Amino acid sequence: MLRPLLDLFVETASMRVEQIAEAVRRKDSAASAAFAHAFKGESANAAAHRLQALAFELETTTRRGDWTAADKLVEEMQLSFSRVKERVGALN
Q1: How far apart are CA 83 and CA 52, in angstroms?
Q2: pLDDT (tens digit, 9 = 90+) per residue, 75-88?
Q3: What is the spatial distance between Cα 30 and Cα 35, in angstroms, rounded to a whole number?
Q4: Are 13 and 81 in contact (CB under 8 A)?
Q5: pTM of this structure
Q6: Other CB atoms within 10 Å distance of the CB of residue 11
Q7: For 26-65, where are the alpha helices, taking DSSP H only?
Q8: Is residue 36 within 8 Å of residue 55, measured between CB atoms?
Q9: Strand, coil or helix: 19
Q10: Which pLDDT tens digit goes with each residue over 7-49?
Q11: Which domain holds residue 25?
Q12: Domains of the chain: total
């Protein structure tokens, strides 16, 4: 029962992380913050606490317009998400 939910999270989160990265590349504060806010909730629902924390930090950082910090957070988010994907993939 849990595996299908985690698989769905990985599938949707993959798209969301790309949306966030693209919005940060464009320096689009409104879109970056909105995508990060949505991802924060999605990550919380999947108990992906590190992703949740990164999304919260990214949401506030992009609202301030700190794009240097936002770029670093996106990199951290992508790395953390790849770890989550690996862990979900390793579940039997």
Answers
A1: 14
A2: 999 999 999 999 98
A3: 9
A4: yes
A5: 0.91
A6: 11
A7: 29-45, 49-64
A8: yes
A9: helix
A10: 899 999 999 999 999 999 999 999 999 999 999 999 999 999 9
A11: 2-85
A12: 1
Name which of 56, 57, 20, 24 is nearest 40 in CA terms: 56
Cβ atoms of 37 and 4 within 8 Å: the answer is no
Determine whether 26 is exposed, middle or buried from the number of CB atoms within 10 Å of its CB (0-12, 13-18, 19+).
exposed
The burial class, CB within 10 Å (0-12 / 13-18 / 19+), for 9 is buried
Alpha-carbon gap, residue 37 to 56, rounded angstroms: 7
Q: 10 Å Cβ neighbour count for 71?
A: 15
Maximum alpha-carbon separation in the chain:
42
Closest by Cα among 22, 18, 57, 63 to 40 = 57
